[in-house]
Amino acid sequence: MTKRQLKFHDHEFEIDTYWLDSLDDQPKPLAIVFPGGAYKFIAGREAQPIALKFASEGIHAIVFDYPLISEKQAIYPLVLQEIATLLNWVGEQSKVHNIDLNKILLVGFSAGAHVVANYNTLMTNEETKKEIFKDDIKVQPAANIIGYPVIDLTLGWPKEDWAMKISADILYWQAQEHLNNNSKPTFIWQTVTDQTVPVMNSLVYAQKMELLHIPYELHLFASGGHGSSLATYVTQDGNEDNVNFANAKWWELCMNWLKVRDILPKE
């Protein structure tokens, strides 16, 4: 793992890169990971373990240390501007690290999934994109993966006054409302018993994708809490509730979906 500092205008941000050694000249997919943390912190259980899991599947990974709630700077639109900057940087690195620019994934958990969902809506619409990021975005994601996602800030999370702190502009509150015909295919998973982020978030996003005929795959597991990450002992973090053999199947299901999408080779 190597840390890198990137910059959008005068705002610096950090990424952790997990490049795979090239044993051949075959370009590899890249997953850009957005951990959860309620926009208050970056959840470690959804950072390095997820990046290493992608690496085990032959996929480069980057963990993005996106902006958090502070008094100095609003999260939006800065976070979307930083993602666009990162994607353009990835394009510059493609030959150095053998990155397949046609197989870029945005991977978000909880609040990180809200970031991914907003990028998939606002930055795939030319009208809203040009208001947020003036330059060309030369690299675009091929697909998204979101786990126990925050989609709509009015559906039960946050319960306190976090919505206004995340953004005072309601443009960024309800990602499903801005899905469009250019939005990318998305793999969605959550538990129906999630007591932190209501499952309705996943349902409204999938429903809008269905109406727009955007490819998606939705998996809702019968039990389990919020934030289980891989749902195995690897990401248990001292909490037995984070281990769930049934929910852990999401990874295998997701890898199968990536094969269906021709992002991973079919075996």
TrEMBL record:
GO MF annotation, one: hydrolase activity
Superkingdom assignment: Bacteria
InterPro entries tied to this protein: AB_hydrolase_fold (IPR029058), BD-FAE-like_dom (IPR049492), GDXG_lipolytic_enzyme (IPR050300)
Signal peptide: none
BD-FAE-like domain residues: 23-208
Keywords: Hydrolase
Protein name: Alpha/beta hydrolase
Species name: Companilactobacillus baiquanensis
Taxonomic lineage of the native organism: Bacteria, Bacillati, Bacillota, Bacilli, Lactobacillales
